[in-house]
Structure formats: C-alpha cells, structure tokens
Amino acid sequence: MVLSNDMAALIGFGCEAVMYGAYCIVFLTAAHILLQRKRGRRVKDPLIWATAILFLTCTAHFALEFDHFHTTLSSTGIPGYANETSKLFGADLLISLADLVGDAVLIYRCWLVWGRSWWVTIFPSITAIAGFACIMELLHLLLSINPSSPTAPPSIVPLGIAGYVLPLCTNVFVTVLIAARVWYMSRASREYSDLTSSSKTVQRAMSIVVESGLLYLVVQLTFVVLFAMQHPAQAILAVIAVQVYGIAPTLIIIRVGLGYATDNTTANTMTRVRWNRPSMYRNSASQYATNTTGYSTTAAGTDVELEETDTLEDGKKTGAVAV
User: Are 86 and 94 in contact (CB under 8 A)?
Assistant: First the structure.
C-alpha cells in the first residue's frame, strides 16, 4: 500500500496527539521542579521563560493542527487533508520556532558547562539562527509558488534541507562540546580522587548529554532524509519533531532537578566540589591542580573548586569530595 500525503498527515496528527499528551506531563513535572527551586527569582530565570515559551509554542502548534483536523474532516473529508492552508503555514512556522527555542536551551546549558565562555556559543548560535531564516524564506517562496502544495516544490527543496540541517548541526556541535567538557573533568577528577563515586556521577552526566542529544538527533536526521526524498512520511515526522523539540530540553531540566545528575543547568544552583588535601602537600598539590584544571572550573554545570585544608590521616594524603 502506497502512503499518500493525506494519510500521512492524518497519521502524523494522531502521533502528535500522543506526543503532546506526554509532553504535558513532562512540562508539568519540570514546572513544579523549577518553581520549587526558584522561589524569589522566578522572573529572572531564563530556564523558566524558555520552558514556558517552548510549551506554549508546542501547544499552539497542536491547537492549529487539531483545528485543521476538525474543520477539514467535517467539510471535505480525507481528500485534500494534507493541502496547505493559512493555519498550517502558521503551524509550520511554529515548528521552526520551537526548534530555535530548544536550541537556545541547549546552547545556554553548554554555556554554563563551559564556565560561561561565550566563544562556545558563537557557532551553534549562528547555525540555529541561519536555519530558522532559511525556513522562513522557504515558507515565503512556497506561498509565492504553490501555497496549497502539501510538499515543497523540487526547486526549493535545497533551501529546506539547509533550513533543517543547520539546526541539526547546532545540536550535534553542542552535544559534542558538553560531552568533551564532562570527559575532560572526569579525567581530572580521577587524578585527584580515589573514590569511584565521582567517576560514576560523571558517567551519569554524560549519559544525560548523549541521551538528550540522540533523541533530538534521530528525529531531526530522519526528517531531513525524508524531506530530501520528498517522501510523504515527512508529514508524520514533522509534527512529531515539534513535540520532541520541547520534550528533549525539558527532560534535561527534570533529570537535573531530581538529582539524577551532577549537571545543574542553572547558574545559581551549582554544586560545589571540594578536594581536601593535607598541609604537608599544600603548596605542590595546589600549584599542580591549578595548572591542570584551573581554580574554578565548571564541569557539566558544576563548579569545581580546589580548597586547601589541613587533613592528615595515617600519614597519607587523602581526598574528600563534598557534593
């Protein structure tokens, strides 16, 4: 059986309805965690704003799709269901907007992980904004060429591919940066601590980075391939993707907020890790540690601070980790 554009659009709406229901649960959980942890500074917290904007964007997209589902089936039925309308153009715009906001959350998190270094945000920010601009131009050209076409005309497909590949590059780049930073700090922690718990927590933080990146990556990459092939199934992935753009960053916030990771996404609630050394090793150890890791190095959103103390146990150098 050949999948038609109309049937693909209907299947996509059903899948999005399921994903949106799951997203509502994820969002309410994240909102509860953020509001409990951010008492007194809720207005200034960018994560609260980003989480709210993401949810409102995905909700608006589902509302437009539901309105199209109801009005089209009641008036014309299945034939022509996938044809573009003014409301569906608005829904397509919201897909790219949700993608842009989701990328902003990941970039913000990468900025924190890298000790608030602005240079790590330059490339992913450019690719994210450039991808959004390409999609805006794609919608403009589609309105001019064939406003009712369910798929993009072949002449503007390359522009659409660029519009979806650039945000994909943003996600891959940011994920690699975070994973590299966490790996570097895990290596440094093993040099100064004999405790296996430090290595386990770092590995858990890395799993969060990989899992959140892969969730986005698989959906985005599949959609780009289907879009380039002009396959009708792109209509299914497109509406699923908009909910994934909201779910993936929100899951990170939940995992961090529940304490399943050492990665604190907010700048104001970072965990302090102190390495305690005896006084007899104070000068040499302090100088070596400062040259190797830096005084206040941030790993996965965690401030790592070298603190000199007089701790001596059985004449041996000991290390203590306080999280």
Answer: no
pLDDT digits (tens, 9 = 90+) for 164-197: 899 989 988 988 887 787 777 766 655 555 445 5
Kindly list the domain boundaries of the chain, sorted by start residue.
5-257
Gap between the Cα atoms of 97 and 33, Å rounded = 25
**Over the range 21-34, which residues count as b (16 or more CB within 10 Å of their CB) and which as e?**
eebeebbebbbebb
Confidence of residue 200 (pLDDT cuts 50, 70, 90): low
HSE-up (13 A, CA, CB side) for residue 119: 0
Structure tokens at 263: 């990665």
Beta bridge partners of 298: 303
Closest CA to 129 of 158, 178, 162: 162
Query: What is the reported pTM?
Result: 0.73
| Residue 313 bridge partners (DSSP) | 316
CA distance 128 to 78: 36
- CA dist list (Å): 271 to 247, 301, 302, 323: 25, 8, 5, 6
Q: What tokens were used for 323?
A: 């999280």
Predicted confidence (pLDDT) per residue in 252-311, tens digit: 777 766 665 444 444 343 333 333 444 444 444 444 444 444 434 333 333 333 333 333
5-257: which CATH architecture? Up-down Bundle (1.20)
Can you say how many angstroms the Cα of residue 17 is from the centroid of all Cα atoms in its chain?
21
Tokens of 131: 């991808």
Cβ partners under 8 Å of residue 196, min gap 6:
none
The angle at the Cα of 227, spanning 20 to 6, to the nearest 5 degrees, equals 65
Q: What are the start-end ranges of the E strands in the chain?
A: 272-275, 296-299, 302-306
Cα–Cα distance between 318 and 276 in angstroms, integer?
Answer: 7
Other beta carbons less than 10 A from residue 83's beta carbon: 17
The CA-atom distances, in angstroms, between 97 and each of 227, 245, 253 are 18, 10, 20
Structure tokens belonging to residue 88: 């569906």
